[in-house]
Amino acid sequence: QIPKTQKAMVFEENGGPIEYRDIPVPKPASDQILVHVLYSGVCHTDLHAWKGDWPLATKKPLVGGHEGAGVVVALGENVTNFKVGDYAGIKWLNASCLGCEFCLKGNESNCAEAVLSGYTHDGSFQQYATANAIHAAKIDKSANLAAVAPILCAGITVYKALKVSEASPGEWVAITGAGGGLGTLAIQYARAMGFRVVAIDSGDAKEKICKDLGAEVFVDFKSSDLSKQIVEATSGGPHAVIHVAVAEVAITLSTEYVRPAGTIVLVGLPGGAYVKSEVFTHVVKTINIKGSYVGNRADTAEALDFFTRGLVKSPYQIVGLSELNDVFKKMAAGEVVGRYVLDTSK
Ligand code: 8ID
Ligand code: ZN
């Protein structure tokens, strides 16, 4: 039975109060599914969306969230690829045109018509959310819906970033922000893909989780000789660096310690940040710096398959949807170890 109203976390203005409210349950358009979202991860992107610190406006009022895992409860009349009762995921890329040059080549995140869950379209911080059926993630019936939620953004994103890093099995990959939501999954995908991991973050709790998840080396970003420690531990620098830290300084520093001919992949999106790379070193070391933005439908299916096969696990803790404000406070202070997942029933 689909109710007429539901609970949601809503804000009217960027940086303004986020309120636990009753709002109408949306109706799926002809090409959409309606998902009863049981759990939603909280990504640092949701914090950026609320703060409004990116050069892209959010919808207002906004229901954030883009790691929603749940059950399909209704279908638009043109939907043929889902049935009521299937498990489905609400991800960042809610829809795209599917016909432009970028969509045709599998670069759906670059589509000019891309619709973004929890940013330009109400997302998963509500009990019922809509998504384009072609883009919605298919989740295996064996999945624990709370555990799979973080895969829907964090997992897909880091898996894609590791692919585009072009690191080879046996090579070193450094991960900045390794103890956070994207980082803890990046360590595991990296291991599953055969890479050796240097985790960079701060504090004992993050060191412990990074090592437990398979990082061979942990370096505290607050130490003064960070570059030297990383170069020594990897006998010449990591072949790839995946930046999920929300820090411009981390990016600049990596141009020092990355291995010659190595690749730096930008994923974290600190507001107003620039990449600073000294040109002589950049050329002579022949380093590559590239951006990576979520993943396409194939990356989604592949990232979920690693999860279904038990190769990656979400290090998550569950709190109620109504407690989102507390999660944002911890996240802004860099105190989130792994991922918070919201139970939309509380
Ligand atoms: O498609 C994309 N490119 C994409 C997808 C999803 C998320 C990008 N993101 C972006 C988010 O918008 C955010 O900017 O990735 C970034 C990280 O998201 P997250 O993993 O959800 O954030 P978190 O859980 O807060 O973890 C961030 C970690 O960075 C560490 C913190 O200690 C924290 O553990 N960190 C910071 I802040 N400064 C650091 C530094 N200088 C650092 N780690 C290493 N060095
Ligand atoms: Zn995200």
UniProtKB/TrEMBL annotation:
EC number: 1.1.1.1
Gene Ontology CC annotations of this record: cytoplasm
GO molecular function, one term: alcohol dehydrogenase (NAD+) activity
Matching SUPFAM superfamilies: GroES-like, NAD(P)-binding Rossmann-fold domains
Keywords: Metal-binding, NAD, Oxidoreductase, Zinc
CDD domains tied to this protein: CAD3
All copies of domain Enoyl reductase (ER), residue ranges: 15-342
InterPro entries per UniProt: ADH-like_C (IPR013149), ADH-like_N (IPR013154), ADH_Zn_CS (IPR002328), ER (IPR020843), GroES-like_sf (IPR011032), NAD(P)-bd_dom_sf (IPR036291)
Entry cofactors: Zn(2+)
PROSITE patterns: ADH_ZINC
Tagged with keyword Metal-binding: yes
Protein family per UniProt: Belongs to the zinc-containing alcohol dehydrogenase family.
Protein name: alcohol dehydrogenase
Species the sequence originates in: Sugiyamaella lignohabitans
Gene of this entry: ADH3
